[in-house]
Amino acid sequence: MVSAVRRARPDLGLTVSATTRAPRPGEVDGVAYSFKTDAEFDAMVEAGEFLEWAHVAGHRYGTPVSEVERVLASGHSLILEIDVQGGLNVKRLMDDAVLVFIEPPSMEELERRLRGRGTESDEDIALRLGQAAGETALAASYDARIVNDDLDRATAELLSTVEAFESE
Ligand SMILES: Nc1ncnc2c1ncn2[C@@H]1O[C@H](COP(=O)(O)OP(=O)(O)OP(=O)(O)O)[C@@H](O)[C@H]1O
Ligand SMILES: Nc1nc2c(ncn2[C@@H]2O[C@H](COP(=O)(O)O)[C@@H](O)[C@H]2O)c(=O)[nH]1
């Protein structure tokens, strides 16, 4: 869903995460992700370059502190599209963080979408469905929940949620 948010509001403060996942066809290094080898990711961890990082569905993903600083220096709200472990860690570090849980209409629909994308193996899809079930169990600790049924509607709801918190 983050691609739709980027298209709708390119000015928002979305960060570029680092990941050890391989790029999908069409994914450009440095746009949504900086793609790292395991050794490069290890070096970033060692050097304390991450605000947070986590294992998600068989890969590592992290939010570089440099990205947080870049967005905050631009004067925009910081928006992190990260997993629940990462979200809860950021909340511990930044008390004023707002956690928005974006969920599929059902696990069956999530599986249909992942299979339709055609970029993950059966094993990866099973990992992602397991991850999603675990994340849903923790959603109660989030500040808001959005069902991603229709992409345009859900994107609009997310943007209005962000704007509501920005104006508080
Ligand atoms: N509301 C929706 N209706 C139909 N397909 C959707 C919807 N939302 C997401 N998808 C598709 O489901 C798949 C998984 O979506 P998800 O948002 O989890 O992916 P993502 O890795 O964050 O991708 P993206 O960078 O496109 O946001 C993608 O192929 C995406 O295009
Ligand atoms: N804790 C973090 N989680 C992250 C980060 N960047 C992304 N993510 C999460 O990974 C999943 C899977 O991403 P995909 O692009 O491989 O489909 C994504 O939905 C996020 O929840 C991060 O920097 N830290």
UniProtKB/TrEMBL annotation:
It comes from the Bacteria. It is an enzyme of class 2 (transferase). SUPFAM superfamilies: P-loop containing nucleoside triphosphate hydrolases (SSF52540). It catalyses: GMP + ATP = GDP + ADP. CDD domains: GMPK. InterPro entries: GK/Ca_channel_bsu, Guanylate_kin-like_dom, Guanylate_kinase, Guanylate_kinase_CS, P-loop_NTPase. This is Guanylate kinase. Its EC number is 2.7.4.8. It comes from Granulimonas faecalis.
